[in-house]
Amino acid sequence: MSVRDRRPIKVLVFAASLRRGSLNARLAELAAQTAERAGAEVDRARMLDFDFPSYDGDAESGGDLPEPARELCRRIKAADAFVIASPEYNASMPGVLKNAIDWASRFRPQPFNGRQGLLLSASPSMAGGNRGLWSLRIPLEHLGARVYPDMFSLAQAHEAFDAEGGIANAMLQKRFGETIRCFLDLVEAAKHYHVLEKQWVEFLGEHPNQATDRVETTEVEAA
Ligand SMILES: Cc1cc2nc3c(=O)[nH]c(=O)nc-3n(C[C@H](O)[C@H](O)[C@H](O)COP(=O)(O)O)c2cc1C
Questions:
Q1: Nearest atom in ligand 1 to 129's CA
Q2: What is residue 4's predicted lDDT score, i.e. its pLDDT?
Q3: Per-residue three-class SS string for the chain
Q4: Which tens digit of pLDDT belongs to each residue from 102-148?
Q5: Are 99 and 18 in contact (CB under 8 A)?
Q6: What is the pLDDT of residues 178-201, one digit of tens each?
Q7: Does the model's pTM come out above 0.85?
Q8: Is 23 a pocket residue for ligand 1 (Cβ < 6 Å)?
Q9: Can you name the residues that pair with 44 across neighbouring β-strands?
Q10: Ligand 1 centroid vs 31 CA: distance in angstroms?
Q11: pLDDT per residue over 43-73, tens digit each?
């Protein structure tokens, strides 16, 4: 499909690192540029934009949902899909990202429900931070996000970029571009051509209980 044929889709892209010179921020920027070239509208965010306090149930029940959490929630909801480039910390996701997901999950409607997500990682290690993405899948899928099966993890990322911010290895660069474009095709299909209603039930097999149930139904847009 050519860029001209792409029906409108909007993607939120951010890296889950606070660090200046972040490798994941470089990968997120490459994803953003690739998505724009493939015809998507991109909202670039930075983890620094979402400077949350640690999740605190007392703050929440007192109605004190932090403004950065509201902002993240707004931006997820304004997009059809999200792309997260996340570092791997101790074989898992960074705490700052889990904290952001926990805050965002408290809003209603719950913003991840029904959103398409693509996970990327970059690390100096040989596995590119891929283990962290498996841990990141768990809360996102729990919240009803449609996490794309393919995940791109850039190994030895400290020496993987060229001077223009692309991936120096031509084959890897090609795989990266194809992964983004295939993901965007799915986002477009899910937004413009889907006919299936989707229901998110937090704990599907639990005995129904109005006081504790968290159930949301995704509206079906007319194609
Ligand atoms: C607390 C901590 C734990 C880390 N654990 C891992 C790890 O399990 N696997 C890995 O590949 N890299 C690990 N690293 C190295 C990061 O991949 C590396 O610092 C990377 O550059 C961080 O991403 P960024 O450049 O986007 O900030 C760890 C770094 C820190 C600070």
A1: 11
A2: 57
A3: CCHHHCCCCEEEEEECCCCCCCHHHHHHHHHHHHHHHCCCEEEECCHHHCCCCCCCHHHHHCCCCCHHHHHHHHHHHHCCEEEEECCCECCECCHHHHHHHHHHCCCCCCCCCCCEEEEEEECCCCCCCHHHHHHHHHHHHHCCCEECCCCEEECCHHHCECCCCCECCHHHHHHHHHHHHHHHHHHHHHHHCCCCCEEEECCCCCCCCCCCCCEEEECCCCC
A4: 999 999 999 999 999 999 999 999 999 999 999 999 999 999 999 99
A5: no
A6: 999 999 999 999 999 866 677 888
A7: yes
A8: yes
A9: 13
A10: 20
A11: 999 998 887 899 999 989 988 788 999 999 9
Check if 86 has its Cβ closer than 6 Å to any atom of ligand 1.
Answer: no
Q: Ligand 1 centroid to 124 CA: how many Å?
A: 8
Our mutation pick for probing the ligand 1 site, out of 98, 123, 126, 136, counting the most ligand atoms within 8 A of Cβ, is: 123
Residue 26 CA: which ligand 1 atom is closest? 26
For the Cβ of 19 lying below 6 angstroms from any atom of ligand 1, the answer is: yes
Residue 88 beta carbon below 6 angstroms from any ligand 1 atom? yes
